[in-house]
Specification:
By secondary structure, the protein is an alpha/beta fold. Among the domains are: 171 residues, 3-Layer(aba) Sandwich (Dimethylsulfoxide Reductase, domain 2), CATH 3.40.228; 125 residues, Barwin-like endoglucanases, CATH 2.40.40. Helices cover 28% and strands 19% of the residues. Helix 3 packs across helix 19, helix 8 runs antiparallel to helix 11 and helix 11 packs across helix 12. The structure holds ligand MGD (2 copies), iron/sulfur cluster and molybdenum atom.
């Protein structure tokens, strides 16, 4: 007899962490819907969330660790045996090449399993390697460098829920549940906000699902964000719309910033960015004349070059208009499952955005966002002392996700040891020596803490209300499986190698820590359970985990934390004129704008995300309708201009490479742009099927501070696939 039950849980596919109801038959998830009893989420789910049972029951799921066998293919290996073998191989590599030769890369997989990395990073530090990379540096590294250059505000940015003005720069939260609007049910949240009169400014070359709701949409030429932001600041200063009292009390460098934006007149910026001068002025007034609000950048400006500057000018805009939480207000981000701290109406001071620890390649250094992942392929492929020989890849898919698709594949093939933690055979896993399958989200406990912690990467993000939720594991491990997560695997290796692990819990970014980090020794005599690691992560939480557990549908807590005044004698200030940023702005003024190209590459390729897929995840799940070919959206006028027919195959070429895609008409694009979703493709993508857009993206134009390559606004040409054959 089947036992069926329906239980509350959390979808952890993306950082919205939507509360869900999961129907479980004999331990197997069979249905997921939004949880109508979860306060404030409105029962929202997206297709990815509803496909969780398909992901968990997926026929191609890897259920036991795999070892690559010489001659090709994989064979099953027990998890303990795999850990022992890998530990021995790592020891040999360290003996020969030193600890720097061992690297760890974490992708977006850990979004769905937040404790997976806890013991992995502890193990890295125990073996003495600092070579820890993450997808964050090919995502939005400027979130952290800009904060390092500008400083941050201890109490955080003003919240969304009582804002009357808001600016979203290169994000599409309605689809991506990303920066900009509240992560949960952003469409509903934006609508509510507009119904109460909030004015939204969106800067995006595409009239996105988010931009459609904007009061002013600046449909810019890709890459012109710094110009537009400088123009907006120019107007705000010229019309004296800034909060002079706030600036005088909390910032420095105002005069230098005013000088720096003076040449960025509305007429110059409008011409350069391809927008109407009036729209720019209205956007500036709209943002500055509101009483409360915020401004947030996302991947658009992050990928567009000059990303530190775009993010930095956005912080300047927030400071100029005093959009930080003020003394006496309810603290917008008080922490529920993170420790209690005192949110003050006071800045965290700026700190060095770049460390003195160099990489071996590209002249890059470690920076506030970590080690530059775009340099990792070259760190692997460049011979010499310190060359990386072993890579642990946790929940990432470098072959498809890293810019320069070919170089990424070469790097994966060039390693002495590649261990991939993933639940299915990805393009990267196919090249692994060992593939270790972790349990999937519904088989694991978790809390909403991960989303709260988003505020540590940049200005405040996360929940707009003090939300807390815990879920136990609601599904069983599949029968006959031998699943281990990263923490367990690294623990087993540590035991094998006689290492003592210590887990460091940091609650902040760089030196800006809300409370001092906790360093917690792990009992090495017994493998901790995942439940124990969840508890460990909640050490010192403002609301005890047990109290959160009492609300299985989640709860809006009301700790009534007020923003405290500035400390007596504190003279810390936010920096409006960081030298490096002012120099970059002056330099940009002297180079021509990113005019829509007209020569050999007449279109600009821009980035985009799809509702049914989370990067490369979901492409093998039938009900998410993976396409036969990578879709490429173009304005109907451009299809006509280049003699292309929607629904047919085309060849896209950049100076770096070429790809095959199926063109579609999309009038939401700025004419002259073409947008392609990343994450499609496979290891063998030459013969047929989808191809990765990272074939078109090279590493020759990387940001000198963070190393992020130009990943949007890339000149390309498009021809009908048949035409290219002749
Ligand atoms: N051209 C182009 N390139 C891009 C981007 C772009 O917009 N355009 N976006 C960039 C951005 S923002 C990012 S963040 C990176 C993403 O880069 P990656 O994170 O390297 O790529 P993903 O495809 O997200 O890979 C996530 C992997 O995690 C696995 N996974 C899912 N759940 C779990 C789990 O619980 N445990 C483990 N161990 N694995 C799990 C999935 O199966 C998948 O293979 O790509 C970047 N690359
Ligand atoms: N459904 C879904 N959700 C996801 C993901 C997914 O793959 N699918 N991925 C997750 C990840 S890893 C991340 S990092 C977040 C990212 O979340 P977002 O940053 O919101 O990602 P996108 O939806 O691609 O929005 C980026 C926007 O930038 C615009 N853009 C392109 N070039 C420029 C430019 O030069 N300037 C400006 N101002 N805008 C530009 C694009 O038109 C696009 O609308 O989403 C996360 N959520
Ligand atoms: S938006 Fe979709 S994928 Fe993201 S947490 Fe919610 S249901 Fe899951
Ligand atoms: Mo990302």
């Amino acid at each position: 007899m089947t036992t069926t039950r329906t239980v509350p849980s959390i979808c952890r596919n993306c950082l919205a962490y939507c509360p869900i109801l999961v129907t479980v038959d004999d331990g197997r998830p069979v249905k997921v819907t939004g949880d109508p009893d979860a306060p404030a989420f409105g029962g929202y789910t997206c297709p990815k969330g509803r496909a969780l049972p398909d992901q968990h029951n997926f026929a191609g799921r890897i259920l036991r660790p795999l070892k690559h066998v010489s001659g090709g293919g994989f064979e099953d290996i027990g998890s303990a045996e795999a850990a022992a073998e890998v530990a021995a191989k790592v020891q040999a590599i360290i003996k020969k090449h030193g600890p720097r030769s061992v690297a760890f890369y974490t992708g977006t997989g850990p979004v769905s399993h937040p404790t997976s990395g806890m013991l992995a990073t502890a193990w890295m530090s125990a073996v003495g390697s600092k070579m820890i990379f993450s997808a964050a540096t090919i995502d939005k590294p400027a979130e952290r460098t800009a904060v390092a250059l500008h400083g941050n505000w201890i109490a955080g940015m003003q919240g969304f829920d009582d804002a009357d003005t808001w600016m979203i720069i290169g994000a599409n939260p309605v689809i991506a549940k990303s920066n900009g609007a509240p992560l949960h049910n952003p469409g509903m949240r934006l609508k509510e906000a507009q119904d109460r009169g909030m004015k939204l400014v969106v800067i995006d070359p595409r009239r996105t699902e988010t931009a459609k709701r904007a009061h002013v949409h600046l449909q810019i030429i890709p890459g012109e964000d710094p110009a537009v932001l400088a123009g907006i600041i120019h107007v705000i200063i010229k019309e004296r719309l800034y909060d002079a009292a706030f600036v005088a009390a909390n910032a420095q460098g105002f005069d230098a910033l005013a000088d720096a934006v003076r040449p960025w007149t509305p007429s110059h910026v409008a011409k350069r960015a391809g927008i109407a001068e009036d729209d720019l002025i209205v956007a500036a007034r709209c943002f500055a004349q509101g009483k409360r609000g915020g401004a947030v950048c996302s991947t658009g400006p992050s990928f567009a070059t000059s990303s530190n500057l775009s993010y930095y000018l956005t912080l300047c805009l927030i400071t100029l208009c005093g959009r930080w939480a003020r003394e006496g207000e309810k603290a917008p981000f008080p922490n529920i499952l993170l420790p209690a701290f005192t949110p003050k109406a006071q800045p965290y001071p700026p700190y060095p955005a770049v460390s003195d620890r160099p990489m071996r390649v590209r002249g890059l250094k470690e920076n506030a966002s970590g080690l530059p992942t775009a340099a990792l392929a070259d760190e692997i492929l460049t011979e010499g002392e310190g060359q990386i020989r072993a890579l642990f890849c946790s929940g990432g898919n470098p072959v498809l996700a890293w810019p320069d698709r070919k170089r990424a594949e070469e790097a994966m093939r060039g390693l002495d040891l590649l261990v991939v933690f993933d639940y299915h055979m990805t393009a990267t896993a196919e090249l692994a020596d060992y593939v270790v399958p972790p349990p999937l989200s519904l088989e694991l406990p978790a809390t909403s803490q991960k989303v709260e912690g988003l505020k540590y990467s940049g200005v405040s993000r996360g929940y707009p209300m003090p939300w807390g939720q815990y879920t136990p594991a609601v599904a069983d491990y599949p029968a006959g499986s031998d699943l281990v997560d990263e923490s367990q695997f690294f623990f087993m290796m540590a035991q094998q190698m006689g290492l003592e692990l210590k887990c460091t819990l940091s609650r902040g970014s760089g030196p800006n820590q809300e409370v001092p980090p906790d360093v917690i020794p792990i009992d090495m005599s017994r493998m901790p359970t995942i439940e124990e690691l969840v508890e460990l992560a909640c050490t010192g939480s403002r609301v005890p985990l047990d109290e959160v557990k009492a609300y299985p549908h989640g709860h809006v807590f009301d700790p009534d934390v007020r923003v405290a005044p500035r400390d007596a004698g504190c003279d810390t200030r936010l920096e409006l004129a960081a030298r490096a940023m002012m120099d970059e702005l002056a330099h940009l003024r002297n180079v021509p704008g990113r005019r829509m190209e007209t020569g050999a590459y007449p279109l600009l390729l821009i980035c985009r995300r799809a509702n049914n897929f989370m990067n490369s995840v979901g492409q093998d799940i039938d009900i998410l309708k993976p396409p036969l070919h990578t879709p490429a959206a173009m304005h109907p006028d451009d299809l006509e201009r280049f003699g292309l027919v929607a629904g047919t195959l085309a060849e896209i070429r950049s100076a770096h490479g070429e790809m095959r895609a199926e063109v579609a008409a999309d009038a939401s694009l700025r004419p002259g742009t073409i947008s392609v979703v990343h994450g499609f493709g496979s290891l063998d993508e030459d013969s047929e099927g989808p191809q990765s857009v990272n074939r078109l993206i090279g590493l020759d134009e990387c940001d000198p501070m963070t190393g992020i390559p130009r990943m949007t606004g890339i000149p390309v040409k498009v021809t009908a696939a048949d035409a290219t054959r002749h």
